[in-house]
Write a structure and sequence with these properties.
It comes from Shewanella polaris. The protein has 134 residues and is of the alpha+beta class. It has a single domain, classed as Aspartate Aminotransferase, domain 1. The protein is built from 5 helices and 6 strands. A 6-stranded antiparallel sheet has the order 1-2-3-4-6-5. The longest helix is centred in the N-terminal third of the chain and has 20 residues. The mean pLDDT is 93.
Length: 134
């Protein structure tokens, strides 16, 4: 784990840290499944961030002002969130065109979220496809 990301995780409440570590593990697992070996883990805007040369950056974070929620962020200048809404409808709670919002006690729809992460990690290769090739 990147040292700065590790330090960031140490600032989260324990229950949120567990949720965010699950997101981190899922992102890295999806990258591995997709054969993406250049995944970079850093902090961007003070948030854990994951990117590759063929994809769009994924970030996630928790904010004290919404203590029971955490979010996974996608680039708002892409059509990722619009595509997720088209494919998965109200499976997720969306924060405009930039995030999926979870409550800390939610059961995460892993199949659907895995697909969303996959599309983001491969975005530059699939952005020209209708519904990102879904």
């Amino acid at each position: 784990m990147d040292v700065n990301v590790k330090q960031k995780f140490e600032t989260y409440p324990e229950d949120i840290s567990v949720c965010l570590m699950q997101l981190r593990t899922l992102i890295l697992s999806v990258a591995q499944q997709e054969g993406i070996v250049d995944i970079e883990e850093t902090l961007k805007w003070g948030e854990p961030s994951y990117s590759s040369r063929i994809g769009s950056t994924i970030r996630f974070d928790w904010k004290a002002k919404s203590p029971n929620q955490y979010c996974i962020f996608f680039n708002c200048k892409t059509n990722l969130i619009d595509t997720f809404k088209e494919i998965y409808g109200d499976t997720f709670v969306y924060g405009g065109n930039r995030s999926i919002i979870f409550n800390k006690n939610d059961i995460i729809p892993l199949t659907e979220l895995t697909h969303c992460i996959s599309m983001s990690l491969r975005y530059k290769k699939i952005k020209h496809l209708v519904s990102l090739g879904a």
